[in-house]
Each structure stands twice: as C-alpha cells, then as structure tokens.
Design a protein that fits this description.
Keywords: Arsenical resistance
InterPro entries: Ptyr_pPase (IPR023485), Ptyr_pPase_sf (IPR036196)
Helix content: 25-40%
Strand order of the largest sheet: 2-1-3-4
CATH topology: Rossmann fold
Structural class: alpha/beta
Number of helices: 5
Number of domains: 1
CATH class: Alpha Beta
Radius of gyration: 15 Å
Pfam families: LMWPc (PF01451)
Protein name: Arsenate reductase ArsC
C-alpha cells in the first residue's frame, strides 16, 4: 500500500511524515511525499530533527506531485491553518484524509521556540502515524468508508 503525504512546499511536514512513516511501517507499506509547489530543497532543521530521532532520510528530496513514481492508494494532506495556508487538493481516485499541522519552518522567535515548534510537529505527526499503523489495516483495506473515517479521526488527534 502506498501513502502520499502532501503539502505545498514538500520541504518540512510532508518530509517528516514520509520519513517517519517509512521508519515505522510494516512490510508492504510505503510512503512518499510531494508538494503542489515544491521548494526544491528539504528543510535543514527537519532533516536534523529526523537524524536526532534515528530516522534515515537518504534519497529523499523535494518533489512535485506531478513527478510521483506511482499512483498512491492514500493521500494525506498535512498543511496547517497558520497564515491562511491553502492546502492542495489531490484529485485522483484515492482515499484522502487531512491531518493539519502548522508549519514549524514559519515560526519566528528564539532558537528554543523554533526547536519546540519542530518537536511539536514531529510528535503530532508521529502520534498520528502510530495511530494509523495500529489500525486493523488488513480489515480496513477492504472497507474504504471505514478506513476514511479512521484516518479522519486520526487527523483530529493532538500531540501528547
């Protein structure tokens, strides 16, 4: 099963989601990330955060949703509401869910405040990914409506 984590720039939140999902996912499940308007560069602080968590990012890069090597089965948008951010709408016939997360790369403040924003985004995304992977995936794979409901509920979870 292929999961696409999608946002606008594909430099921070979708990268964190892709790398964390692939780090935790069972065999046969794979994530990729993309953006509707990719920056072309991965956020250095997001890369450092993932490295500090022991999560590999080798081979990851900022890419357009037009350049995907496969059609995803599930698309999860991770755009937040800060600064009126517009989330891209993937129009393919896939299972879709929205897991809004404010972009830590837009936080202005002390380094400690910026670090805290990145840590919060990571904890929120990791918690949601762990909840996703704890679902009865084999059962839900045959019930799209129930799978969508479960993914939508997960999108409402807050960071612990």
């Amino acid at each position: 099963m292929n999961v696409l984590f999608l946002c606008t720039g594909n430099s921070c939140r979708s990268l964190i989601s892709e790398a964390t999902f692939n780090h935790l996912a069972p065999a046969g499940w794979h994530a990729i990330s993309a953006g509707s308007q990719p920056t072309g560069v991965l956020n250095a602080q997001a890369l450092a955060l993932l490295a500090s968590k022991g999560i590999a990012t080798d081979g990851y890069y900022s890419k357009s949703w037009n350049d995907l090597p496969f059609t995803p089965d599930i698309v999860i948008t991770v755009c937040g509401s800060a600064a009126g951010e517009t989330c891209p709408a993937y129009l393919g016939s896939v299972l879709r869910a929205h897991w809004g997360v404010d972009d830590p790369s837009h936080v202005v403040g002390t380094q400690a405040e910026i670090d805290a924003a990145f840590e919060r985004a990571y904890r929120l995304l990791r918690g949601r990914i762990e909840a996703f992977l704890a679902l009865p995936l084999d059962q839900l794979a045959t019930d799209r409506a129930a799978f969508k409901q479960a993914l939508d509920r997960i999108g409402q979870l807050e960071a612990q």
